[in-house]
């Protein structure tokens, strides 16, 4: 009768008890230690109970006949219930809740070098539609894009000279160019005028010098009869070049006479 109570109590714990899921490794180890201790204690009690009631069991088997086999079946059932309890405990260890990772570590995936590479996953139609769909811009982004587009268009027209600002710039450059050309032409005219004035002044001075005791006026026929030495002396008095042939010297002397003695 005592064995029956033990079987019912422990059988209820092993077979019909509610499963308890652990939430940490320490709790799992603690529960396994308790289960092992409970199993060892139950085995010892079962062995002690079997030795003390061996004679009684044998006598009852002799008296009842087949009732011994039924009792043995019940005992095997109790042992089966204990095994089921151990299996349930192992299943509870497998089914325990995994604590969720917190922080940045939950975003990091640790690569397993022994894991097989995953096969290429086919993209679903809805994923393709989402990838192909244009990104919706905010109002501020749309305004920025539109402003940049207008700026690029204006710069293109400005480079082609089609904007009002470009036309004003080109007119200003044309005016500057015209003023520069006019200034250069005026300088050239002034330089030419100064040269002509200087030459006229020199000629006037030469005529004045000839009229007041300057070089004697020469007869062209006599000049043509002169030798090169005499021609060079006369040209030297008149500050003219002495280079060239006799013909060049005669021509130079007659030209001076024509300019200054006329």
Describe this structure in words.
The chain is mostly helical and 262 residues long. It folds into three domains: 2-96; 142-214; 215-262. It contains ten helices and no strands. The longest helix is centred in the C-terminal third of the chain and has 48 residues, at 164-211. The N and C termini lie far apart (175 Å). The model is unreliable at 1-12, 66-73 and 103-110 (pLDDT under 50).
Summarize the model shown.
The chain is mainly α and 262 residues long.
Question: How is this fold's topology laid out?
Answer:
Layout: H1 2-16, H2 25-52, H3 54-64, H4 67-94, H5 125-132, H6 139-159, H7 164-211, H8 220-225, H9 228-237, H10 246-260
- Count of runs of 4 or more consecutive helical residues: 10
Number of domains: 3
Radius of gyration: 66 Å
How would the global form be characterised?
rod-shaped
Largest beta-sheet characterization: none
User: Unreliable stretches, pLDDT < 50, 5 or more residues?
Assistant: 1-12, 66-73, 103-110
**How confident overall, as mean pLDDT?**
72
Give the SSE string: HHHHHHHHHH
Instruction: Give helix % range.
Output: over 70%
Distance between the termini: 175 Å
Strand fraction band? under 5%
How many DSSP-defined strands? 0
Structural class assignment: mainly alpha
């Amino acid at each position: 009768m005592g064995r029956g109570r033990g079987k019912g109590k422990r059988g209820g714990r092993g077979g019909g008890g509610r499963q308890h899921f652990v939430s940490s490794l320490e709790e799992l180890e603690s529960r396994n230690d308790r289960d092992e201790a409970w199993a060892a204690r139950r085995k010892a009690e079962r062995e002690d109970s079997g030795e003390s009631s061996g004679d009684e069991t044998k006598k009852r088997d002799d008296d009842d006949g087949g009732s011994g086999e039924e009792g043995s079946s019940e005992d095997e059932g109790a042992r089966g219930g204990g095994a089921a309890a151990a299996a349930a405990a192992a299943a509870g260890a497998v089914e325990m809740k995994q604590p969720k990772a917190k922080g940045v570590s939950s975003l990091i995936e640790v690569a397993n070098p022994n894991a097989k590479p995953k096969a290429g996953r086919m993209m679903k139609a809805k994923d393709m539609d989402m990838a192909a769909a244009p990104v919706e811009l905010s109002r501020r982004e749309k305004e920025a894009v539109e402003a940049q587009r207008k700026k690029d268009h204006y710069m293109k027209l400005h480079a082609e000279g089609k904007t009002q600002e470009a036309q004003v710039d080109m007119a200003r450059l044309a005016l500057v160019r015209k003023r520069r050309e006019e200034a250069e032409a005026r300088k050239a005219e002034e330089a030419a005028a100064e040269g002509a004035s200087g030459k006229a002044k020199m000629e006037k001075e030469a005529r004045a010098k000839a009229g007041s005791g300057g070089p004697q006026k020469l007869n062209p026929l006599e000049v043509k009869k002169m030798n090169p030495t005499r021609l060079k002396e006369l040209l030297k008095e008149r500050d003219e070049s002495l280079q060239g042939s006799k013909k060049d010297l005669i021509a130079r002397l007659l030209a001076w006479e024509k300019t200054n003695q006329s």
